[in-house]
Amino acid sequence: MGTGPWKPPPSRLELEVLDAVWTLGEASSADVVEAVRRRRPLAPTTIRTVLHNLRRKGYVVPVPSLERGFRWKAAVTHQAVARRSIRELLRSLFDGSPRQAIALLLKDEELTADDLAEIRRLLDAKRSRRDAP
User: Fold this and answer.
1) Helices 12-24 and 44-57: crossing angle, nearest 10°?
2) The pTM is what?
């Protein structure tokens, strides 16, 4: 998302529907409705409206099909949406400081030894890339 045109951020409900599209890969509207309704009791018309809003915002695109209705696929990756959401969260809640956000998470979250080991591995890898010639 950082390389393409600016898109309005997806709402929480849009993220739920988009998550279903990511999970399904390419799916009919009926498939998306079924997947979302397994998690949350929403009207099919609501889910279809959200799909069309996601299309308008550029998060999903219709796929040509011989079926009745559209098939959908994501136009953006989960990672791209997550990266942008984290950046917006950092800007709005932490004055753009990843350090403040990480400090809060380390202080307030219950992290397992495995979580801490993975965080250490990521930090070491980041340091190695930064220090490399």
Assistant:
1) 90
2) 0.75
